[in-house]
Design brief:
It is built from 15 helices and twelve strands. By secondary structure, it is an alpha/beta fold. It has two domains: 252 residues, Type I PLP-dependent aspartate aminotransferase-like (Major domain) (Aspartate Aminotransferase, domain 2, 3-Layer(aba) Sandwich), CATH 3.40.640.10; 136 residues, Aspartate Aminotransferase, domain 1 (Alpha-Beta Complex). A seven-stranded mixed beta sheet has the order 1-7-6-5-4-2-3, with helices on both faces. Helix 8 links the parallel strand 5 and strand 6. Helix 3 runs parallel beside helix 10. The radius of gyration is 21 Å and the shape is globular.
Length: 398
């Protein structure tokens, strides 16, 4: 019995051991299968592989042992039957939509989701006859009112980017299934260590492996996790044909990243919680958004459905964009970059970067103000992070 089939295996063990299949060399570390194709022992075996009557490798666009190790490991951590690895987080969302939706279908999603996801829904999927309605993430009645007879997917991220709003996954799951729709959850901020949406009723989980699953900002990748039918056949079928595939090298990096996921997420939670508490009392900071704060509107919900509160926080500075830019430019330890989930702390100004392609009306509806700053809190010493942020706050105040 493989470790992922052991019902008693714990998260940290699965993160290190699940998915690996040792080769004839009996290597201890996962190898990288850097090959585009695989040989067959006979024409009959080749035919059987292609008609799927016999499992096995064919072509690395859709079958590669290194990628499969990552897929099996992440599926085990999320509690899913199968996983399809993709070339990026956005390609994971695209693959889920293209594999599970048809022209004429309808999506309901929060107005505060990631800017590129909004662009994908409004500017790409709309061209193929898939419409999207946007609602406030935490307003369950608004979700229900937005559902139409052709609604086939409720899509969300929780906590949200960048305001860290938390959705009630059990309630949204019940709502989706009552209307014969799928609940698809972007679990990027929490990772399976902090939250397992499938156990809370979700049908499909998507990831940007680029973020916390890697944890060190080295590679691009994504993943779709779910059951054997929807993900294993429908989403995989899209990837097999369209080819938004993960490279073997990136899969190897992500598999190694998963080995330390539990340790890293505990550190991210600890540092972010301490920084959020301290920021709340600083002059010039009008509001701090972090689920671990008791003042957060969904604090109790986050406590109930998450193991911890994550490494992401945002806050509003008095003085709007000018103050926010002065703050960002004064940082010396924290990096200015659009990425997140790194062991290195990063900062961005959402209104002019990650959400810049959204219309002013969309940003306003999502609560993305000019004074909003997003921090992905890394694993540096908290004293150094606090000193860096304090220096930057002084600069922001002018």
């Amino acid at each position: 019995m493989s470790i992922e089939d052991d019902p008693h295996a714990h998260f940290a063990t699965l993160a290190i051991r699940a998915g690996q299949q040792h080769g004839i060399e009996q290597e201890h570390s996962e190898p990288i299968y850097a090959t585009s194709s695989f040989k067959f022992t006979s024409a009959a075996e080749a035919a059987a592989r292609f008609d799927e009557s016999e499992p096995g490798n064919i072509y690395s666009r859709f079958t590669n042992p290194t990628v499969r190790t990552f897929e099996r490991r992440l599926a085990a951590l999320e509690g899913g039957e199968t996983c399809v690895a993709t070339s990026s987080g956005m390609s994971a969302i695209l693959s889920a939509c293209m594999g599970l939706l048809n022209a004429g279908d309808h999506i309901v999603a929060p107005s505060g989701i990631f800017g590129s996801t909004i662009s994908l829904f409004c500017n790409v999927l709309s061209r193929f006859g898939v419409e999207t309605s946007f609602v406030p993430l935490t307003d369950l009645s608004a979700w229900e009112r937005a559902i139409r007879p052709n609604t086939r997917m409720l899509f969300l991220e929780t906590p949200s980017n960048p305001l860290t709003e938390v959705a009630d996954l059990r309630a949204l799951s019940e709502l989706a299934h009552a209307h014969e729709a799928l609940l698809v959850v972007d679990n990027c901020f929490c990772t399976p260590y902090l939250q397992q949406p499938l156990a809370l009723g979700a049908d499909v989980v998507v990831h940007s492996a680029t973020k916390y699953l890697d944890g060190q900002g080295r590679c691009l990748g994504g993943a779709v996790v779910g059951d054997a039918e929807r993900v294993g056949k429908q989403v995989f079928g899209f990837l097999r044909t369209a080819g938004p595939s993960m490279s073997p090298f990136n899969a190897w990096v992500f598999s190694r990243g998963l080995e330390t996921l539990a340790l890293r997420m505990r550190g991210h939670c600890e540092n972010a919680g301490a920084l959020a508490q301290w920021l709340g009392g600083e002059r010039g900071v009008s509001r701090v958004f972090y689920p671990g704060l008791e003042t957060h509107p969904q604090h109790e919900l986050a406590r109930a459905q998450q193991r911890g509160f994550g490494g992401m926080l945002s806050f509003e500075l008095e003085g709007g964009r000018e103050a926010a830019w002065r703050f960002i430019d004064a940082l010396r330890v924290v990096s200015i970059t659009g990425n997140l989930g790194d062991v290195k702390s990063t900062v961005t100004h959402p209104a002019t970067t990650t959400h810049a392609r959204n219309t002013p009306e969309q940003r306003s509806e999502a609560g993305i103000t000019e004074g909003l700053v997003r921090l992905s809190v890394g694993l540096e010493d908290i004293a150094d992070l606090q000193a860096d942020v304090a220096r930057a706050l002084d600069a922001a105040r002018g």
